[in-house]
Write a structure and sequence with these properties.
By secondary structure, the chain is of the alpha+beta class. The protein has two domains: about 55 residues, no CATH class; about 190 residues, no CATH class. Helices cover about 25% and strands about 35% of the residues. The protein contains six helices and 13 strands. It has a nine-stranded mixed sheet with strand order 5-13-9-10-11-12-8-7-6, with helices on both faces. The chain is globular, with a radius of gyration of 18 Å.
């Protein structure tokens, strides 16, 4: 059968290649499954990454129902831990979904410190247009260095991603990635006003043509936007309705 792809939000371990935390489950057959980094394509066999996926779910729910319940629980925990609603797009003609998340520590009971909401037209990171919005705790470090530059490099992955495997291919990919990152770092940081729940909020913005990322500290919460193919004039942010993002 042809390889099928679906999101794997339960896996939050950083990718050993690019440190991304968004993964896809790639299934070629019931015996051939792998976790694939959505940012760089790094693959690892499922038994080596998520052994719990092969165990029987003791809850009695069908897998789809259990996943939906888990994601809704995660959403409610995030809202409680962050002290505000997650930020999403007020208007979006395509698909919406709950994306990656991170916690203050490795335990399942640790406080959630950031959650991403994805907006696209089908789960394909390299397809335009797309908008990802992260709601998280305010950061003490430089958001341009730690958020905006990495996001632009990821969104430009079509320029550096290597489809082949092996050490030589990896070296070529790393060189192209470095060149893209160096170019992105040369772009001047600007300011842009975006609407958040009807209030104009000033964001630091870093962008190249139709690819841009922005960050703002708003009421003690950090809001990060990463987008490709969507003009800033079309971005209207607001408190996200979980029913629009959850299965």
């Amino acid at each position: 059968m042809a390889e099928q792809r679906e999101r794997l939000p339960e896996l939050t371990e950083p990718c050993p290649r690019c440190r991304g935390v968004e993964w896809e489950l790639a299934t070629a057959s019931p015996e051939d499954r792998a976790a694939v980094c959505a940012a760089c394509g790094y693959r690892q066999d499922i038994p080596q990454v998520v052994s719990t996926t092969t165990t029987v779910d003791p809850s009695g729910f069908a897998p789809e129902e259990r996943i939906a319940e888990t994601r809704r629980d995660l959403w409610e925990r995030a809202v409680a831990d962050l002290g505000r609603s997650l930020v999403g797009l007020a208007v979006w003609p395509g698909e919406r979904r709950l994306g990656g998340w991170s916690a203050a520590g490795p335990g399942k009971s640790d406080a959630i410190i950031s959650v991403s909401l994805e907006h696209d037209h089908g789960y394909d990171r390299r397809a335009d247009p797309r908008v990802e919005i992260q709601t998280g705790v305010s950061v003490a470090f430089d958001p341009v260095e730690h958020w905006l530059v990495p996001w632009l490099v990821i969104l430009r992955s079509d320029e550096w991603r290597e489809e082949a495997d092996g050490d030589a291919a990896y070296a070529r990919e790393e060189l192209r990635r470095y060149k893209v990152e160096r170019r992105v770092r040369s772009v001047a940081v600007g300011d842009i006003a975006l609407s958040v729940d009807g209030e104009a909020v000033s964001f630091a913005v870093l962008g190249e043509e139709d690819v841009w990322a922005a960050y703002a500290d708003h009421d003690g919460i950090g809001i990060t936007i990463a987008t490709r193919g969507v003009p800033a004039a079309e971005i209207e942010l607001g408190s996200a309705d979980p029913d629009a993002y959850l299965p």
